[in-house]
């Protein structure tokens, strides 16, 4: 009688069989994210500007703050790759170095708004009742106001500085994030794991931050990424209006404010490159946000 020989397994010894527990990637969402062309393109754009913000002063070939009145408003050439501005400063060097302030202020403002909005949204969503009625209506009232106008009024009252810009933008983003988190908490607060924590006698702060928060992180991550794009635009807008980053910074919004009138005389390079830098950074952040949203929706 012939014995049946089992087929040889192609799985290496000690490795889990396909489909068995432990065979799945440890970080499936991260792998999906790294496979997203949208995310990769956005990450490369943002990474370039981060490198410029960190190491820009070391690889520009001309001093971004040195004035040369004899070479003012020089078109792009071999020496001045992006031309010079009305004070004779090298535009290329200023665009590269100008990434530093905006990539310091915008992420810090986004972090502040996300942290405060998350805490507020957890409280409002978890307690509901009169807490939601009072704080929720206050959030709606704040969101009814144009955020740029609110920021301008606040900065006009307290004065413009990097710290106050971070504080004001972060504060204006807080109610927006709180509304997103509140909606996510509403969908979670009646689930079994929350009821089990309440039956165990856990305190409300523990339930909100240890039980509910990890389950509402995906929308918070997406919201924070989207807010970062808005923060970059807000910083540039406030600087353009004279209420944001102050001279002698090479900030892009400030550069537009100082040079936009020169376009009528044909000095387009004083505006186009700074505006392109703002647009590329915002597009890069938005591509990252789209990539993250696409992965989290799968």
Task: Write up this protein.
By secondary structure, this protein is mainly α. It has a single domain (37-53, 86-296), classed as MetI-like (MetI-like fold, Orthogonal Bundle), CATH 1.10.3720. Helix content is 65%, strand content 0%. It is built from twelve helices and no strands. Helix 6 (147-158) packs antiparallel against helix 7 (162-186), helix 8 (192-199) runs antiparallel to helix 9 (204-212) and helix 10 packs antiparallel against helix 12 (269-296). The longest helix is centred in the middle third of the chain and has 29 residues, at 99-127. The termini are far apart.
* Mean pLDDT value: 86
How many domains comprise the coordinates? 1
Reported for the largest beta sheet, the result is: none
Gyration radius (Cα, Å) is: 26 Å
Total helical segments: 12
Query: Given the helix and strand composition, which structural class is it?
Result: mainly alpha
Assign a percent range to the helix content: 55-70%
CATH superfamily: MetI-like
| CATH-scheme architecture | Orthogonal Bundle
Number of E-state strands: 0
Low-pLDDT stretches = 8-24
How much of the sequence lies in strands comes to under 5%
- Assembly type of the shown chains? single chain
Q: Can you write the helix and strand succession as a string?
A: HHHHHHHHHHHH
Global outline: elongated
Keywords: Cell membrane, Membrane, Transmembrane, Transmembrane helix, Transport
Organism: Paraburkholderia tuberum
InterPro entries: BP-dependent_transpt_permease, MetI-like, MetI-like_sf
Subcellular location: Cell membrane
